[in-house]
Amino acid sequence: MAGLAVLASGSGSNFEAIAGQLKKSAHKVVCLICDRKDAYAFTRAEKYGIPSYFVGYKNRTRGEAETEIASILTAHNTDLIALAGFMRLLTPELIDRFPGRIINIHPSLLPKYPGTHGIIESFESEDRELGITIHRVDYGLDTGPVIVQKSFTRGGNETLEQIEKKIHELEHQSYPAVLLDILDEI
Question: Which end of the chain is more exposed for a tag (fewer CB within 10 A), N or C?
Answer without folding.
Answer: N
